[in-house]
Every structure is written in structure tokens, then in C-alpha cells.
Specification:
single chain, alpha/beta, Rossmann fold, 6-stranded mixed sheet, 4-stranded antiparallel sheet, ABC_transporter-like_ATP-bd
Length: 247
């Protein structure tokens, strides 16, 4: 489904090659390689401490890469500064939810849209986010800190989408959400990715939810890729689920 590319949008191709990343000289990702094709949703799975967040932080250039490359549409992102990454089309939704609690929903969206859209185009962009997330439109005057967990997650997603990324990296969007809300967030993510042809890297502990919307899954164990297969294959692999995913 996410392979459908609509007119005007095209997902980016992300190629992660021999990526080694560590903290204080101690590697936590060991020569990790996998790629995301344009418009693909890839679930990044693994137990606590497997290295999922570190990998997303490496893509967002928030940690130093010891060796290896991350390329977007064939161009190495190695020299791109963190603050320029969004202009190159990469958006990260961290698990802290990237919402400014003191600002209203509307202000949060406008702030995120600042560098991408001006004047009437910004209004259209904000309204476009409200069309995707109807519940946010109803809370547009509420402060970020007054939102429920699900609404905050939708606002974090909206803030990322309004920059019109070609690659969206999400860190555990299901964290702390009730199952029904998780289903809503995942459903919206899948529909939006499909309609925009977005490429999505989705780090999740909620394996079932992630695989329900993903095309493919990559499983990390202690910083190494131990599986890279279609979502259907991974969902049916009981050995893998027991060995690396905790059930
Ligand atoms: N800032 C840091 N300094 C030192 N070590 C860190 C730091 N952040 C993470 N680590 C270590 O790196 C390893 C990978 O952590 P990471 O957060 O990337 O895993 P994860 O798969 O996202 O885990 P979780 O699902 O629990 O969030 C862990 O052993 C962790 O303790």
C-alpha cells in the first residue's frame, strides 16, 4: 500500500551502509546495513537497548557516526548539518514527542512550518495537517501540555509532516498510548505515507502494530542486523519473535 506514490510527492531512498556508532568510543551499532526504497515503510525492531534510537539519531545526525555512510537518494548525508537535514527532506519524530508545551496546537504547527511555507501557503499547510488529524483541529487553541498522549503524538507527527519530508523517521510513536489510539496513529501514518509516497523508518517495540503497517522489517540485536525481511515473513517467524523480540 505504501508503495503508491501520489502526484507531487516522492519518497526518498535511504541507504545505510556499514554504519558503526558508539558512545564514548564504545560501539552500540556494529556495521549495520540496510536500505529503504522510495515509498516504503520499514519497521525497525529489537529489544530494549538493541540500538533503534541510536540508529534514528544517526540518521538525524544527532550522534557522531564512527564509520559507514547514510545516503539519501545517493547523496551522502555525512557532511550535512543537523539543522539542514530537514531541508534535505529528512524529518525525525523523537520519542520525546517534539511538542512545545507552552504553545498552542496552532502555534506548534506554524512554528514547525516557518522555514518551509510563507503567508497563504503556511495557512494551507496548517489546514492540510488539520485535514489529516481531525482531532487536532478541534484542539487548535489548546496548549501542547493540555493534550492527551495520542493528541501529542499526532501533533508531533503533524509538525514533522508540515515540513514535507521525503523520509520520516519515528521513534516509538506507540509509546504510552492505549491500543485503540495506537491503531489510530498507525492507520493515519499508513494512509499519509501512502498518499504522499513517504518513505518511513518506524522504530517500535510494539512489533505487531509496526508490522501491521510496514512493508518490511529490520531486526536489530545488540547493535547488529539479525533479520531483514518482508513484514509478513517476520510476523510469521515464531523463532525470531521468541529469540529477539521478547515473545
Ligand atoms: N547517551 C548514551 N550514552 C551512552 N550509552 C548510551 C546512550 N544512549 C544509549 N546508550 C546505550 O546504547 C545502547 C543502545 O541504546 P538505544 O537507546 O539505541 O536502544 P533502543 O533499541 O532504542 O532501546 P529502547 O527500545 O529501550 O529505547 C544501549 O546499551 C544504551 O544503554
Amino acid at each position: 500500500m505504501s508503495g503508491v506514490v501520489s502526484v507531487g510527492f516522492r519518497g526518498g531512498a535511504l541507504d545505510i551502509r556499514d554504519l558503526t556508532v558508539g558512545y564514548g568510543g564504545e560501539p552500540v551499532l556494529h556495521s549495520v546495513s540496510f536500505d529503504l526504497r522510495p515509498g516504503e515503510i520499514v519497521a525497525l525492531l529489537g529489544a530494549n537497548g538493541a540500538g533503534k534510537t541510536t540508529l534514528l539519531r544517526a540518521v538525524a545526525r544527532l550522534v557522531r557516526v564512527a564509520s559507514g555512510t547514510i545516503a539519501l537518494d545517493g547523496a551522502d548525508l555525512g557532511q550535512v548539518r543537523t539543522e539542514d537535514l530537514a531541508r534535505r527532506g529528512v524529518a525525525l519524530v523523537p520519542d520525546g514527542r517534539s511538542v512545545v508545551g507552552e504553545l498552542t496546537v496552532d502555534e506548534n504547527l506554524r512554528l514547525a512550518a516557518l522555514w518551509r511555507h510563507r503567508g497563504a501557503a503556511r495557512e494551507r499547510a496548517v489546514n492540510g495537517i488539520y485535514e489529516i488529524f481531525g482531532s487536532l483541529a478541534r484542539r487548535r487553541s489548546s496548549a501542547g501540555h493540555q493534550l492527551s498522549g495520542g493528541e501529542r503524538q499526532m501533533l508531533a507527527l503533524g509538525r514533522a509532516l508540515i515540513t514535507e519530508p521525503t523520509v520520516l523517521a519515528l521513534d516509538e510513536p506507540s509509546l504510552g498510548l492505549a491500543p485503540l489510539i495506537v491503531a489510530q496513529v498507525m492507520g493515519t501514518l499508513r494512509e499519509t505515507a501512502a498518499s504522499r509516497g513517504l518513505t518511513v523508518l518506524l522504530a517500535e517495540q510494539n512489533v505487531t502494530s509496526a508490522l501491521s503497517i510496514a512493508d518490511r522489517g529490520v531486526v536489530l540485536n545488540l547493535g547488529r542486523v539479525v533479520a531483514d525481511a518482508s513484514a509478513a515473513t517476520l510476523a510469521n517467524d515464531t523463532h525470531l519473535r521468541h529469540a529477539y523480540l521478547g515473545f
